[in-house]
Amino acid sequence: MKRKLILPTEVKVCATCSYWDGERKVDTEMQLVVVSESCVGECLVQSKASPSLTEASAESRDCLWEHLAPDEVAPGELEGGSAA
Length: 84
What we know:
Layout: E1 4-8, E2 20-21, E3 24-27, E4 32-36, E5 40-43, E6 48-51
Antiparallel strand pairs: 1-4, 2-5, 3-4, 5-6
C-alpha cells in the first residue's frame, strides 16, 4: 500500500499548485490536499513531469505556483443572481 500524505494547501509544493495535473484529493473546506508520496503529475506551466512533493522554490524561475483556493467573488460580481 502506498503511503498517503496530507498537506495544507498553503505549502508550496507541486501537489498544492493549481497548475499541477496529478492524482490528488482536495478538501477545500479543510484546505487540505491528500496525495500519494510517490505520485508524479504534469506541471501545466512548464509542460514537464513533476513529483508531487517538489518544492516550488526549488523549481526554475518558470515556476508559477498558484494557490488551489478558489478566488473569492465580490458580491457585486455575481451575474444573474437576484436579491431575495
